[in-house]
Amino acid sequence: MIVVLKRTRFEELAGEGRGNRGKDVSQGSSVAAQKETKPEPSVCRKDAGSQPKQPDLGPDTRDLLLQLVQTQQQQTKLLQKLLVTQQEFSEEFHQKVAEDRELRAAEEARKVENATEMEELKQSQNERRMEKARQKDVELTLAVGRFNICTNVKDWTHCVNILEWCLDSDGLPFVQLQDLKTDSTPLYTAAKHGYRALLAILLQHGLNVNLRVDAFNTTLLHIAVDYNQISVVNLLLEHRADVNVTDSNGDSVLFWAAKNGNLEMVELLVHQGADVNALDIQGCSILHYCASNGNLPLVQFLIEHGAENKPVIINDGLGGTHYNVLPLNLAIRKKQRAVVDYLSSLNNF
Description:
The chain has 16 helices and 2 strands. The chain is mainly α. It has 3 domains: 79-149; 151-260, Ankyrin repeat-containing domain (Serine Threonine Protein Phosphatase 5, Tetratricopeptide repeat), CATH 1.25.40.20; 276-348, Alpha Horseshoe (Serine Threonine Protein Phosphatase 5, Tetratricopeptide repeat). The protein has a two-stranded antiparallel ribbon. Helix 7 (186-193) packs parallel to helix 9 (220-226) and helix 13 packs parallel to helix 15. It is elongated and about 120 Å long. It starts with a helix and ends with a helix.
């Protein structure tokens, strides 16, 4: 294809030479030869299978390109390592966060359950120790009968000493019970801290369940109610403790439970026959106290269990006397909105 094109072009040049008669033939021949050595014009088509001619790069250029390729490969490997390291760090970080979250949750759970667990552990330990004490019940009975000391509150330390002598050295916590540095007696301490097993032994051997244990004429039931010792309260009620006994201020145990806002204890005492309409020495009822404090659940419970809307005469202890005071009046005075709305909705209020 190329040879044919070259001949055609040569013939054209030869024809042009013949047309120019004034020119020298040798000049035409040299021109034709010069034309023949020129590169083919771009109109020449390449064969379908021909490849473009690669540029001839010098050695310096090839070395530079090789270095660039190697540098790019190194950067790619480094980037891959960085991605792997980042992923490992992310996984380790999330794992650490999860572990910290679990630790915090466990700590919160331990705080919430700590009191219950300690109480259960104490009760379990006391039960095991009381089992040992029962094995020496004969010695205890003889000792109590011999000394006949379970009638005088001042001699309770000696009674505790007898119990300690009869039980093993790892028995009930007598050390705390014998701490008389304060004005409280061992019985007061036993009721306060819920030493049910000790009180059970003493009750079995003649302890007066309604015995006054301090200078304010409080009973064991008052103390157990005040410190929410449900097991001791049940023990005392089982031994026929007076549920309506009052202290020096005329407060029954139900007053103590209501002033503490302890609905569970109030329910227990009411079901055991506590008087919901009892008055203290100032003339206030339990309902008056609950209305003044804004304790709506207690107010509702007392109303549902027979608390009356009785206007009372209140002596404030400062020489003032207030007549015909209703629970609603105290709730309004203390701005207890929920209690005011509830009492106002009742027909008899």
